[in-house]
Structures are given as structure tokens and as C-alpha cells.
Fold this protein.
Amino acid sequence: MTVAAQVDGRGEPRRGGGYDRPKGRLANFEVFSWFFMRISGLVLILLALYHLIWWNLVIGVEHLDSQVVIERWSNPFWRLFNVLLVTFALLHGLNGARYSIEDYIRRRGLQIAVKTIVYSVVLVTLVIGVYALLTFDPASFFAIR
Amino acid sequence: MPMVTLRIQRFDPENDQRPVYREYAVNADPTDRVLDAINSVKWYQDGSLTYRRSCAHGICGSDAMRINGANRLACKVLIRDVGAKVTIEPLMGFRVIKDLVVDMEPFFAQFRSVLPYLINDEGAPERERTQSVHEREVYDDTTKCILCAACTTSCPSFWADENFVGPAAIVNAHRFIFDSRDKAAAERLDILNDREGVWRCRTVFNCTEACPREIRITKAIGEVKKAILSSAR
Ligand code: FES
């Protein structure tokens, strides 16, 4: 549905203006997703950089084993850290993918189809990731081994 | 005078199915402008070559075109800066009417849609509406636009989507949004707060690179985005 983004009596309607612009509470969706990209990008630089440096340089991949993971995991702070990392990474990436889809896929039906697939994949990944982080049980992990 | 080869994209709607490239050798000094070389083709070799130009001094904005792949004003680029073989093509993203002349109407429609004029419905004051030096400075950069369309037609978002309002229109909205005498900033921000408004901008910086007036366009667009953000809260 198209809502004319035009003030009565002034100027002329813009071609494509108001293209699918949501009404009501979602009217500012694009503003906030733009803002979210800036904030989450900043947060991710810090989180991901720390993650990378700690695992690869401080610990070193050669010393990386389940014992290290479990030690880390037992501290609630690091669990929170990882929940934030996976959430921001996936949502930031998802919004970027949405931009690209909207830029490149012009056909309405195809756009909806591709978006549905991408959104679902991200949602499932996010749920699995957060679920694993919050419910991981070292005892049963070793029992299986 | 050294010889320069111009490779010009030609399109005659009455005879051509698709554009063709033709080469012309002209005499040109290194300090001549590309426009001089094009003029010499039209005046002495092929009078059917069609292009827009008017002031020849970089102020009317008529002769924006692609010169060696970059959007430039032919009257501002010197031969010595483009080499002995120059490719000249019309702006991208518009319908070509003939040779280097494109249909600019969609561009001007987008421009008009952002209310690019001073709006102040308050009664006329007794004296002029004064402005401090700082108030004037806020939008000084965006007053320089000559509507040549070099920015909009260098923008990948515009190539992909002709409904995108485009950098030039946002620049001209910026010029009034931040003018302390103007009272319609909220209306313009509302018009631009749209997927086809500022949010189609991906901060590619092509516009800033293309602008012959050196307007910091991406910065201006960023300021509009921030203004929308603070009015949305
Ligand atoms: S002819 Fe006027 S800007 Fe080039």
C-alpha cells in the first residue's frame, strides 16, 4: 500500500514517494533501523574485536579446547557477552541483508519470498545460538563424550 | 597543437536502435577544456553532435556528462587532466534523448518534491529577516548546488531505483531545512523520511566525489538523517 508522503497544497507528490511506508508506530522504522546499524556496528567492533583477540592471540587456537570453553562459560558475564555478540551480529547482518534485498530485488513477490527465507534462517540461528548459550551443561557434555 | 581523440557515445533516436561510439580526432591544447574539444567536433566535423552547454564557466550545470567514466562538467575539465584519448558518454540512469542529451524531467520532479524554496507563512516583518553569520554558515555548502545532476546520476542507489529521491534533491532540501528563516523543515523531513527518501542512501560517497561544486553531499545527507532521527524521538 502506498501512502503519499506529501503535504497537501505544497509541491508535488514525489515519484515513488511513500513507497510502502508503514503507518502508525512503524512509521519511523527506517529511522530506527538506521540508528540501530550505527549503534550495533559500534558495539560489534568492540565485542568482535575482543572475541577475536582473546581467542586467537591471548589463548591461541592451539590451546583452544573444551576445558577453556567451559571455564569461560561458567562465568555469567561471558555468557552475557556471547549472547550480546550473537544477537547484535545476526541482527546487524540481517538488516544489512534487508537493505541489499530491497536495493536489488525489485519484483515484489520475489522480494517477499527471499526476505521470508533470510528472516527465518536468521531467526532460527539466533534462537539456537541463545538457547545453547543459556542451557549448555558441561556435565552432560562430558557424559556424552 | 597536439591531437586528441574523442570517443563519443552517439545515439540518434530516428536511425539508431542502440547507442554507438564514434571517434573524432581534434586539435586541442592541454589547457583547453573538454567542452572546447567537443565544440570543435560539432563546429568543424559533425554538426549533428548534440549536447547541452550554456555558460561554459561551470555555473549553469548544463554540460554534466561522463568523461572517462566519471561524471564531470565538460567546461571544467581540462584536456591535460584526461589524456589523449577521452571517452564521453551521457549521464547514467536517464533516458537518452539524443547523443549526450538526457531527459532530466524525472530529476527535476524529484527536486520539486522536496519543496526547494523558502517557506515562511508568518507575516512580513518590518525589516528584513536577519541571520547571524553562524546561522548562514550551517547551510552554506548546500547553497552551491547548480542542479547539474552529476551527483544523482553517479549514485548506485539511483541506478538501481529511479524512484529514489537522489542526492541532489536532498542537498536542496538541506539548504532550506537548516535555514533559520524557513519554517517548513518538519514537512521536508517528513517527505524525506521514507524508504525512497534519505534511507535509500547507503553512504557510498559517489555523489561527493562527482560534485563539480565540491559540496560535501554525503555529509549533508547525514545531517538530514540525524535531523530526522532527533525529530522522531
Ligand atoms: S556549460 Fe554551464 S556548467 Fe558547463
In short: The two ends of chain A are 56 Å apart (CA to CA).
